[in-house]
Design a protein that fits this description.
The complex is a heterodimer of chains A (323) and B (275). With 323 residues, chain A is an all-alpha fold. Chain A is built from 17 helices and 2 strands. Chain A has helices at 3-7, 11-24, 30-41, 47-56, 63-88, 99-102, 105-123, 129-151, 160-185, 190-217, 220-223, 229-233, 238-244, 247-257, 265-278, 280-299, 306-320, and strands spanning 92-93, 96-97. In chain A, helix 4 (47-56) runs antiparallel to helix 5, helix 5 (63-88) packs antiparallel against helix 9 and helix 10 runs parallel beside helix 17 (306-320). Chain B is built from 12 helices and no strands. In chain B, helix 6 (117-138) packs antiparallel against helix 7 (145-166). The chains are: A mainly alpha (323), B mainly alpha (275).
């Protein structure tokens, strides 16, 4: 099933959220406005707003309240992407030039800071002070996770536990709190908040593992950037960690990365083949499926509604997506 | 009776220590410069918050949060446009971006603990305005010289003005604005003595003298510098007027200012240039 089909029941509300996103980043300065809109127009799955809205359906759904959370979380995600592109020195994102490539690093820094501040301002409009507490904890953890990711680059001694902790902070937390805050904003029961938070966490883990698999299996057209980008940056993900557990594959991989010189795209392609031969992709898929099963299990504790069905369908989509 | 100066030093030290412990991320500090705590801003915000009825610990955390906002902004200002040349430079850039984000997340985290939605809103609004002003300064090619200097003043003072408004301490706005604006001008002037053709001088030359070349001639540099100096003189007169209010607070800043004024070499250089 396509994501657009799953989103159909939310189409009207998502259109509203999209226009709110545009209005929210409508800065006075033309370059700041254009740069903010540049990323917005490049699209994206809007998975965080969708999770906010669907989770809100388990409480007293009021779009005016939900919009602040939905828009804020998407903006926080966007701001982190803008800064990530400076960190990765990336030229392309979602098939379009990055802000740092279209303008420069300074514009990217100002834009990211501006968008992040807009997001926080929106969240303060929520009456429940718990919302800020949940979000601020998550953001702090996300920042620590990003620093850990740099620290772990080309660290071949890391283990699977390091990887899981990293992707939890990098991706799963924001998706988890999208579900939780959607439920909080709608005043859903504490039990529903807890299971939605769990669901988001498991889906987030599966989402990031799938993303990491796609870096090995996707084409440049599907990904909007060359395959093997993670490896080139020194980001060691689940498929390669699995391969490294086997001594014959480990020695082949280490022979590529043992030298001081930067790794070429040809060498990266060579490692991609080694990891594929090792069964690392299948292993990562199994783990991603395990997380999805846990996500489905969390959903079983929630009332059987069309929103629960949609959440399940999105989770299934995440497990099968190609980009 | 306790000495008020001892109390002040003690309070400032507590916040300084809290700040240091928040900033001291061992991995970050391996690759990036230790973030600088602006002592003058710390002192100013401390004095402002002393006028509020916040209880002691909350006052400390509020001061800590405001300083973290400034430090986060200053950290991101260090991101350069140049391509990185080696692995150390790459790491430095990556971690400078992340350090700014990390410090910024901490101000939000601290104020969320106090459930201080209003101050989060004020500070996030200030950050937006500061970034608008930074962008205006950065892309000010078609603007007037006055507009360029007005942007500089905003960049240096928006946080102070917003905090003053938030706590209903409007009387602090004028002094804070003028003092940190002049500080910035003196910094720019000092930079100009160290390296020829700074970013600001180029902006002045571009705007006022319609210079389109990337290198300024000696004559163009002198003209742009004299324009900068006229703004320095004007800002100096404004702050001298405010220094006439001889409270301990003003005396503290006056002494700092005299020290910098002597250090930056503007007077000596101007006298030499004027013969």
């Amino acid at each position: 099933m396509k994501l657009t089909t799953i989103y159909a029941s939310l189409k009207k509300d998502l259109t509203f959220i999209e226009s709110e996103l545009e209005q929210t980043v409508n800065a006075h300065h033309p370059v700041l406005r254009d740069a903010s809109n540049h990323l917005l127009k490049a699209g994206g799955k809007r998975i965080r707003p969708v999770f906010v809205l669907l989770s809100g359906k388990f409480g007293d759904y009021d779009l005016d309240k939900m919009k602040n959370v939905a828009v804020a979380l998407e903006l926080i995600h966007m701001a982190s992407l803008v800064h990530d592109d400076v960190i990765d020195d990336a030229e392309m994102r979602r098939g379009a030039k990055t802000i740092k490539a279209q303008w420069d690093n300074r514009v990217a820094m100002y834009t990211g800071d501006y968008i992040f501040a807009r997001a926080l301002e929106l969240v303060t409009e929520l009456e429940d002070p718990e919302a800020n507490s949940i979000l601020s904890n998550a953001i702090l953890e996300m920042c620590i996770g990003e620093i850990e990711q740099i620290k772990d680059q080309f660290n071949w001694n890391q283990n699977v536990r390091d990887y899981f902790r990293r992707i939890k902070r990098k991706t799963a937390l924001l998706i988890s709190i999208s579900c939780e805050l959607g439920a909080v904003a709608a005043g859903a029961s504490k039990t529903e908040q807890r299971y939605l938070k769990q669901f988001g966490y498991y889906v987030g883990m599966a989402y990031q593992i799938t993303d990491d698999i796609l870096d090995y299996t996707g084409t440049e057209r599907e990904l909007g950037k060359p395959a093997g980008g993670d490896l080139l940056q020194g980001n060691i993900t689940l498929p390669v960690l699995f391969a490294m557990k086997q001594s014959n594959y480990k020695s082949q991989i280490m022979s590529v990365f043992s030298e001081e010189k930067p790794v070429s795209q040809d060498e990266v392609n060579q490692v991609l083949s080694i990891v594929k031969s090792s069964g690392g992709i299948e292993f990562a898929r199994e783990i991603s499926d395990c997380y999805l099963q846990k996500a489905f299990h969390a959903l079983e504790h929630l009332p059987s509604t069309s929103s629960r069905t949609s959440l399940k369908q999105i989770a299934e989509y995440i497990g099968k997506r190609k980009h | 009776m306790n000495n008020p100066m001892d109390y002040k030093h003690k309070q400032l030290n507590i916040v300084r220590e809290k700040l240091h412990s928040r900033l001291a991320h061992s991995y970050l500090l391996r690759f990036i410069d230790i973030p600088v705590i602006d002592e003058e801003r710390l002192y100013l915000f401390h004095e402002m918050l002393e006028q509020t009825s916040l209880e002691k610990e909350r006052k400390q955390d509020t001061l800590l949060s405001i300083m973290l906002v400034q430090i986060a902004l200053d950290t991101h200002e260090r991101i350069s446009l140049a391509d990185v040349q080696n692995e150390d430079e790459r790491k430095n850039r990556q971690l400078t971006v992340l350090a700014g984000d990390y410090f910024s997340s901490m101000y939000y985290h601290i104020l969320s603990k106090w459930k201080d939605n209003e101050l989060i809103r004020t500070l996030s609004g200030a950050i937006q305005e500061i970034n608008e002003s930074k962008m205006s300064f950065y892309h000010a090619e078609e603007q007037s010289v006055d507009y360029i200097f007005s942007n500089l003043k905003d960049i240096e003072s928006i946080l102070i003005r917003k905090v003053a408004e938030h706590f209903d301490l409007s009387e602090w706005k004028s002094f804070g604005t003028q003092y940190f604006y002049l500080n910035r001008l003196l910094f720019e002037r000092k930079q100009e003595l160290i390296q020829s053709g700074t970013n600001l001088l180029h902006k002045i030359a571009f705007t006022f003298l319609a210079v389109r070349e990337s290198t300024l001639t000696t004559e163009q540099t002198a003209k742009a510098r004299s324009i900068l100096d006229s703004y320095v003189d004007h800002a100096k007169k404004d702050i001298d007027f405010l220094f006439q209010q001889y409270s301990d607070f003003h005396r503290w800043f006056h002494n700092r200012h005299e020290f910098y004024w002597g250090l930056n070499g503007v007077q000596e250089k101007k006298m030499a240039e004027e013969g």
